[in-house]
Design a protein that fits this description.
The protein is an alpha/beta fold and 305 residues long. The chain contains 8 helices and 11 strands. Strands 4, 5, 6, 7, 8, 9, 10 and 11 form an 8-stranded mixed beta sheet that branches. The protein has a 3-stranded antiparallel beta sheet with strand order 1-2-3, with no helix packed on it.
C-alpha cells in the first residue's frame, strides 16, 4: 500500500486551535514540519486593542499637558516623558538605554528611521523635538506636538532665520533640543550622512550629544535585515498601514545609545561636527544591527582643517 503524499502546493493546515501549523517543504523525502505562527485574528485583535488604548490615553493626557504648559517648573517635561513612556508600553515596545543623557542646554543629534523615534526619545530625554512644519497639520499628532512646544521647521528660506532664533532661544533658556540631522528617514539598514546645516544652532548649546536608535528585537528575538521595514518608515509608506502592521506584533525592542557629549568648541566648524557625530552614530548603529553589545562611544576628537 502506497503512503499518501500531499502535493507540493498543499496549504498549511492546523490540527487544532492554538497548535502549530503543519506544512510540507518542496523537497524530495521531506516530512511535515511544525512551525509556530501567530494567528492572524489574534494579531488584528491585538492591534485594535492597542490602537484604542493609544487614543484613549492621548485624549486623557491632552488637557493635563495643556494646563502644565502654562505652569513654571519641570512638571510639564516630566509628564511628557511619562506620556511617551506609557505609549511605548501600550504598543509593546520595550526600551533599552545605554549611557547617560547630558542635562541642560544639550543638542541631541540622532539617526532617524521611523515615527517610533518620537516615542522612544520622548520617553528618555528631557528635551524638545525639532520637526518639519508638516507635522503641525497632522491630526492629533500635531496637537500633541504643539502642546509639547515642538519647534517646527519649514523649507521656506524666508523663515529660516526666525526658526533658527527660536531654537537658539530654547537653548539659551537651558532647554535641550532633539535634532535628526539626516533630514529624512532612512530604511533602517544604514545611517544617512548628517547635514551640516542642522548644526547651525550648536554654538548656542552647552553640549552636543550623539544618540543612536536601533530597533533590534522582534518576536523577542534579534531582528534581522528583512525585519527592518517593519520598524522603518520611509519613502511613500503610509503612516496608518505601517502603524497597523507594527501594532500586530509582539516582542519588539528599541535600543538607545547615548554617547559621550562634547562642547561645540571641541570641533572647528559645523561641517566637522556633522561628519564626526554622524560617524559615531553610524558605527554604533552598525554594531547594534549585528547584535553586538550596546556601548556608548567616546566624544569626537578635534580634527583641524
Amino acid at each position: 500500500m502506497t503512503a499518501r503524499v500531499a502535493p507540493d502546493n498543499a496549504k498549511p493546515r492546523r490540527l487544532a486551535r492554538k497548535t502549530p501549523l503543519r506544512f510540507r517543504p518542496r523537497m524530495p523525502g521531506a516530512v511535515w514540519r511544525d512551525v509556530m505562527e501567530e494567528r492572524p485574528l489574534g494579531g488584528r485583535m491585538r492591534a485594535v486593542r492597542r490602537l484604542g488604548m493609544v487614543l484613549l490615553w492621548t485624549v486623557l493626557c491632552i488637557p493635563v499637558q495643556a494646563v502644565l504648559v502654562l505652569l513654571p517648573g519641570g512638571a510639564r517635561n516630566a509628564f511628557a516623558r511619562f506620556y511617551h513612556r506609557t505609549l511605548c508600553r501600550i504598543i509593546g515596545l520595550q526600551l533599552q538605554s545605554v549611557g547617560t543623557a547630558a542635562p541642560g542646554a544639550t543638542l541631541f543629534v540622532s539617526n532617524h528611521s521611523s515615527w517610533l523615534d518620537i516615542l522612544t526619545l520622548g520617553a528618555l530625554l528631557d528635551a524638545r523635538f525639532v520637526s518639519k512644519s508638516e507635522v503641525a497639520g497632522w491630526p492629533l499628532i500635531g496637537w500633541v506636538a504643539r502642546l509639547g512646544r515642538c519647534v517646527f521647521v519649514s523649507r521656506s528660506r524666508n523663515r529660516t532665520g526666525h526658526e533658527a532664533d527660536a531654537m537658539a532661544d530654547r537653548l539659551r533658556a537651558g532647554e535641550g533640543l532633539i535634532l535628526f540631522p539626516e533630514g529624512t528617514t532612512s530604511d533602517g539598514t544604514r545611517v544617512l550622512p548628517f547635514r551640516s546645516s542642522f548644526f547651525s544652532v550648536a554654538a548656542h548649546a552647552a553640549q552636543v550629544q550623539p544618540v543612536t536608535v536601533v530597533y533590534d528585537r522582534l518576536g523577542f528575538l534579534p531582528a534581522c535585515r528583512r525585519d527592518r521595514p517593519l520598524f522603518a518608515w520611509y519613502g511613500d509608506m503610509e503612516t496608518a498601514s505601517h502603524a497597523w502592521r507594527l501594532l500586530r506584533r509582539t516582542g519588539t525592542r528599541a535600543t538607545v545609545v547615548l554617547h559621550e557629549p562634547f562642547a561645540p568648541a571641541a570641533l572647528p566648524n559645523r561641517k566637522h561636527m556633522a561628519a564626526q557625530t554622524g560617524r559615531v552614530v553610524a558605527m554604533s548603529a552598525a554594531a547594534l544591527r549585528q547584535n553586538r553589545p550596546a556601548i556608548a562611544l567616546p566624544a569626537p576628537i578635534r580634527q583641524d582643517a
